[in-house]
Design goal:
The protein has about 150 residues and is an all-alpha fold. It has one domain. The chain has helices at about 5-20, 25-40, 45-55, 60-75, 90-125, 130-150; strands at about 20, 75. The protein starts with a helix and ends with a helix. The relative contact order is 0.11.
Length: about 150
């Protein structure tokens, strides 16, 4: 499995472990879901492909549903044991964590795709007479300017 895909899956799984005091039943449900997500990850060529396929898959909704279910059945690690009249519910905290995780995953996938497209464009441009040499010169100038700034 691609390392970036593995990190993405591990991050999603850690969100459960970091948010809830998991019961044995909850752990079993998480393991079943993540086995399916890992199987999907094995079918993908890179993290952008994985994120796109996961977003379109029913597994994405299963992940959200499990987060919501656990907010009602497991004790939150994020909410104080002291009774309070105000503040976010465990469900609200779970929703915010999930939205943040999705945003980070999408941002990472977009950056990855942009980087690959940029490198592919440079590779194609190198075939144009004179452009390959200009790119090499620019890269050398950039490299030397980094050394100059470090002094």
């Amino acid at each position: 499995m691609n390392d970036q895909i593995k990190l993405s899956i591990d991050g999603r799984k850690a969100a459960f472990e970091n948010t809830y005091e998991l019961t044995p039943d909850a752990k079993k449900k998480i393991d079943v879901l993540f086995k399916k997500i890992e199987d999907l990850g094995l079918e993908c060529k890179d993290s952008a492909d994985f994120e796109a396929k996961l977003a379109a898959s029913p597994l994405n909704q299963d992940y959200i549903n499990l987060f919501t279910e656990l907010s009602q059945t497991c004790k939150s690690k994020l909410v104080s044991d002291q009774p309070v009249d105000t503040g976010p519910s465990a469900g609200d905290v779970a929703k915010d964590l999930l939205e943040t995780q999705v945003d980070l995953s999408v941002d990472g996938a977009v950056q990855h795709v942009r980087g690959r497209a940029y490198r592919a464009g440079l590779d194609k441009a190198r075939d144009i007479p004179g452009v390959g040499g200009a790119i090499d010169i620019k890269n050398k100038i950039d490299l030397f300017s980094r050394f100059k700034k470090q002094k």
